[in-house]
Amino acid sequence: MTHTLRVSWGLAFRSLILVRRMPSVFLPSLIMPLFILVSTAGAFRGISLLPIFDGASYLAFTIPFATVMGAGFAGINAGMTLARDIEGGFVDRLITSPAPRVTLILGPLMAAGVRSLFTTTVVLLAGLIGGVGLPGFGGTLVVYLLAIGFSASTACWSMGVAFRARTIQAAPLMQVVVFLSVFTSVAYAPREALTGWLHHISNVNPVTYLLEASRAAELSYLGWDELWKGLAALGVLLGILGPWALAGLRSRARR
């Protein structure tokens, strides 16, 4: 176990070093959440006039959306980096080495978690500049933990795609599924304000419960009812996407 963790952290550190060497890979995942925060808070500010908001700031309502989106980009970056390593032959060399193969998944997962910490911090600082205070120690911790969990989920999805497609050209597929999962949740408005097909999809979308738990921490008091649903949603996502990534690794190792 110690050897596996050491190798995994080595791979994670290698992935994080690429941020300095290839900033074009990481910068979009940092700029996009800030763009979402600014543009959404401005364009949809009128939604906060609905009685359900009870005078709450729409900027504060948007912050969890931006943190989750930043975490999603961190996970996508993990899959894109893995796809480049597959194309370059690094993954094949590691598979044939004595290193545990599971480190090919654990390493990118660690790197995605660290990236999500950075993007979440930047979004929260932007919120402070905009006049939205931090939700207290416990609430801030929940916001970070949910972002890390979503980055792990999207990383598993993206790595599963990378193992099967074996090319960076699969990046649009990694991105579009993450985008759809977020945009068909309660990204822009509470569930009570949604109607039609979007309301029905948001009810079964796990991202909805992540956002609602994060928003409860940001806007009001986070109770156990919101927290357990958010944690259960993370469990569902990881329970589905974790085996998806492992199956992709096994199929790659058999080639």
Radius of gyration, rounded? 18 Å
Order of helices and strands: HHHHHHHHHH
* Beta-strand fraction estimate: under 5%
Determine the N-to-C terminus distance: 26 Å
Largest sheet: number of strands, sense, barrel closure:
none
Provide the low-confidence segments as ranges.
Answer: none
- Share of helix, binned: over 70%
Structural class, from secondary structure content?
A: mainly alpha
Inertia-based shape = elongated
Number of strands: 0
- pLDDT average, as an integer? 86
Helices, by number, come to 10
Please, could you describe this protein's structure?
- The two termini are 26 Å apart.
- The relative contact order is 0.14.
- The protein is mostly helical.
- The protein is elongated, with a radius of gyration of 18 Å.
- It has ten helices and no strands.
- Helix 3 (58-88) runs antiparallel to helix 7 and helix 6 (136-165) runs parallel beside helix 10 (224-253).
